[in-house]
Amino acid sequence: MEIKITLLPGDGIGPEVVAEGVKILKTIGQKFGHNFKFSEALAGGIAIDQTGNPLPDESLAMCQQADAVLLGAVGGPKWSDPSAKVRPEQGLLRLRKELGLFANIRPVKVYPALADASTLKREVVEKVDLVIVRELTGGLYFGKPQGRQDNAQGRAAVDTMYYTEGEIRRLMRVSFELARQRRKKITSVDKANVLASSRLWREVAHEVATEYPDVAYEDILVDSCSMFLIRRPADFDVVATENMFGDILSDEASMLVGSMGMLPSASLAEGKFGLYEPIHGSAPDIAGKGIANPLATILSVAMMLRTTFNLSQEADTIEQAVEAILAAGHRTADLATPGQPKISTTAMGDLVAEALKA
Ligand code: IPM
Ligand code: MG
After folding, report:
1. CATH of region 119-257, choose from 3.40.718.10, 3.30.300.30, 3.80.10.10, 3.40.50.2000
2. Per residue in 70-86, pLDDT tens?
3. In what order do the strands lie in the sheet with 274-278?
4. Could you tell me the distance, in angstroms and rounded to a whole number, from the CA of residue 89 to the centre of ligand 1?
5. Hey, whose CA ends up nearest to atom 5 of ligand 1?
6. Is 89 in the pocket of ligand 1 (CB under 6 A)?
7. Stated pTM of the model
């Protein structure tokens, strides 16, 4: 069987970490007898530079023809002028919308070897194993009207938080299915005391909850949730929420692990198709230095194998290799404590590949 993967390396450290993800896929292909075929397409700032468009139609078509997509990161100071006509992030949003990637899965798991890397106390973070399921194609990011509405009072602008029951229901179903494979607990996050869209969210979430009587369900307001994520993060299992809340809470949750460089993600469409990417950004300050942590991308590859291709054994093998390498004390710069030796992006990728071959 031939497995077609489209690569969108993007900007900053994107190409460096995607190269390590490809290294791991090739190693898995050799070991388990899978034939991965890679093609590379432009997205983000590099696509703006070369074509004027952050997501050229050709890139979108290459993603649509693939079985899965691996993305590095997009954006950087070069393209971040707020008055610019096109921004790299627009390419990412169009990709999500056009590919129907409505469910963004962001696991946050603390590795025992890294429990001291967090700014929080070890005893607070050491048992953390949660997943944020973020709605990705609705809410404030896409609601209309959106944009400038200058008027007689002066400058003005609007964004709209709009949700349909269908959008909420499918996101909650993905969340409940995931909870069933885990500790069977869901926290649905909203702002139902203020927002109409959140009251609809809660109403529909409760309806879906009746389909899953075996899963424990709770509602929590987004402001309390941001507090409890710091105070008692190990209590959370699956956290389901709308687009903007999920964007904010997932960055917060990433700090439980100590480094964004450890966190993978999957953005899933209806069916098995998905786009996989590390949750860290393009990190322009360290781009080109060969010091970025490739583990978030490597763990994203593991998610791809398990979720899109049902290759759980291959995925487990990668995750175990990463855990063993961390336990053995190998650290990229973002993870190293003062005095600990730091290894490069490619050295970390090589270690994982070697562990897989063993
Ligand atoms: C993320 C990022 C994006 C988002 C940006 C780059 C548009 O922050 O994936 O969390 O806001 O969704
Ligand atoms: Mg974000």
Report:
1. 3.40.718.10
2. 999 999 999 999 889 99
3. 35-40, 2-10, 68-73, 274-278, 264-268, 103-109, 129-135, 238-241, 185-190, 216-221
4. 7
5. 89
6. yes
7. 0.96
